[in-house]
Amino acid sequence: MSTKERASSEAMIEMSDGSNNPMQADLSSPIEDLESSVPEQESEEVKKSRLSRVNNVIQKVLMTPIIPDGPWTLPPSLSFGSHTHIPRYFISVCKFSIYSYYFTLFTHWMIRELNYEHDPTYEWDVFLTYDLHSSALDLFVFFVVGRLWSDGRCGVDSLGFILPSATGAWFFSAMAEWPWARHNVSMHQIMCMWPDKLFVFVGFMSSCFAFVSFMHVYKGFKDGIIFGRLLEFSFTFLVFAYPIGASPFFHFHHWFAAWLVGMHFNQKYWWSYTVLALCFGVYVNGIAGYGRDSLLGCQMAYYNSKQQKCGHLKSEETVFCFYEELPTGYNTSVNFETLNSTIEGNQFFGFGEPQPLDWRNCSAGGGGH
Questions:
Q1: Are 301 and 353 in contact (CB under 8 A)?
Q2: How confident is the model at residue 82 (pLDDT cuts 50, 70, 90)?
Q3: What is the rounded distance in angstroms from the CA atom of residue 249 to the CA atom of residue 238?
Q4: pTM for the full model?
């Protein structure tokens, strides 16, 4: 056999063997891959379908409002003979106002029914007389900046808003049952009176807050809204916090902290909306438990008394404070000068221009919430 015939014979043997046949390899490989991948593809599709159904159920349960958000169109029989269009934002603000009022009323009752820490003199009629107006303005700003009027958000009458807000209103009062948590956020309290457990707790909560804030910044960059949101936050901070923050009497009440920060958790994601509702509950807790106390404390009380020329002013520089059944050793947030005057067991104190507590040497004092 010649060399040419021998080479041709070896080539025929290799092709019949199939090990080096490119056509056979191309035909068999896709079929084998398809057979092996079909069960996996079906399994992935089933998983995705199942997760999608679960997510839809959760969305429907949590996000569906009791009353539709609108827009509404009233029939002629209810609108003086013509169809009347009621926009969504109008329905939303009405629902938010009604929910806020009755939620505050319920929280006021709950705190006292469960005997959580509260101001026993702060009755509901006191709220209506002194704090309703200011609280209504707070809630209007919260509604606008928090974008509770926007499409794609669950209504305030849905479980997605009710459950987090109720949790915030309850937890902040329940937390006060821990002895180490019964302190406020002021320089004197932080530097002189906070226990180690409270520092640990605040550190943990600050870490959670930092993570949520980071997620908002990250999503803000991704959605192209970060600069608008930062401008919005800067404006509200400059208007509501900066002018009074420099005062040594400034007291960072938890109602104010939750209100100022909470309304900026206003992105379209469920976790952002949940944090906003949680902060709303903390705000309501502060108002219902203690009232909408002034951020400047006795400085504001002295200013109002002096400006209004109230009858209890001794002079332009001195004002009298009245306490019923004042306990022995009671410390206040101003330096009082005891007067030699006691009437039927009630003691009067007088003070001039109020002086803040000195946190640098931890002078005696406290109070606040």
A1: no
A2: low
A3: 18
A4: 0.71
